[in-house]
UniProtKB/TrEMBL annotation:
It holds the Pfam family Abhydrolase_2. This is Phospholipase/carboxylesterase/thioesterase domain-containing protein. One of its GO terms (biological process) is xylan catabolic process. It comes from Corynebacterium stationis. GO terms for cellular component: extracellular region. Keywords: Carbohydrate metabolism, Hydrolase, Polysaccharide degradation, Secreted, Signal, Xylan degradation. One of its GO terms (molecular function) is feruloyl esterase activity. It is found in: Secreted.
Length: 273
């Protein structure tokens, strides 16, 4: 693990790098993991029980960007945080990390996943950096609804990208059924779509097929919109605002699941090697 610093927009920013333990010849995949509100790179690593670190044992580089004041300037209009007040360019910051890593590694495919505010940052990348990602994953995050969706680019700039979503039905901070999202009632993040509606939105733009369902675990239903740019929604019954990792978390976030870990699903979905 390497703690790294990079100057961007005249501000020292940080990210954590997990280089591959056994790199292979040829291009290496880069997986960006964006933390949630009030977290940091090291907090999200502990929060997910270091399960994403373990992916670096493959031919994959794992990097955890750090937000300003523990937040990313995501694609929602309503974001009452310092990073929005400062007009932070986190899309540019992401590019700066990638550019720095390209100087050291033979970067091939680039993937991004994020939890909560970090998932919203991944959504911003899909609109404001179209074509950058070979795949994206969202944990406890759904698309902002109506006027609350406010990326810099028009939504028409989006380019079809495989998308994985993992969401709990009892998430009270990013509600599975949609509605007002946020940590505090007085500091909401605006209205968001439901998880199924978010999946359908991207499936349509990805040119994916009709949805199919499966139940690999008693508490999990997977809805798959098939195609070259498929969309998968893992609906986890009774799970709260968490990332499945097998770790016991603060009960205020709600129940977790021990049926699977998000990192394992991400590795399979992105075909990391």
């Amino acid at each position: 693990m390497e703690q790294r610093r990079i100057t961007f927009q005249d501000t020292e920013r940080r990210y954590v790098l997990i280089p591959p333990e056994n790199p292979e010849d040829g291009p290496q995949d880069l997986l960006l993991v964006f933390h949630g509100s009030l977290q940091s790179p090291n907090v999200i690593r502990r929060f997910t029980d270091f399960t994403f670190d373990a992916l670096a044992s493959c031919n994959t580089i794992v990097a955890y960007p750090g937000g300003i004041k523990n937040h990313f300037n995501d694609a929602r209009k309503h974001l009452p945080e310092v990073t929005r007040e400062l007009g932070t360019d986190d899309v540019g910051f992401t590019h700066a990390i990638i550019d720095e890593l390209r100087q050291e590694f033979n970067i091939g495919r680039i993937f991004a996943c994020g939890y909560s505010n970090g998932g919203q940052m991944v959504l911003r990348l899909l609109f404001d950096a179209p074509g950058l990602l070979s795949g994206a994953a969202l944990f406890a995050a759904t698309l902002a609804a109506g006027e609350n969706l406010a990326p810099t680019n028009p939504v028409e700039a989006y380019q079809p990208t495989p998308l994985l979503m993992i969401h709990g039905t009892l998430d009270d901070k990013a509600p599975y059924e949609g509605g007002m999202a946020g940590i505090h009632a007085k500091r909401t993040r605006g209205e968001v779509l439901s998880a199924p509606a978010t999946g359908a939105y991207f499936a349509e733009r990805n040119g994916a097929g009709e949805p199919q369902t499966s139940n690999p675990y008693p508490d999990v239903e997977i809805t798959t919109w098939p195609g070259d740019n498929r969309v998968e929604l893992w609906t986890v019954q009774d799970m709260g605002h968490v990332v499945p990792s097998g770790k016991e978390l603060d009960t205020r976030l709600g129940k977790n699941t021990d049926s699977f870990t998000a990192a394992e699903v991400v590795a399979e979905f992105f075909e990391l090697t």
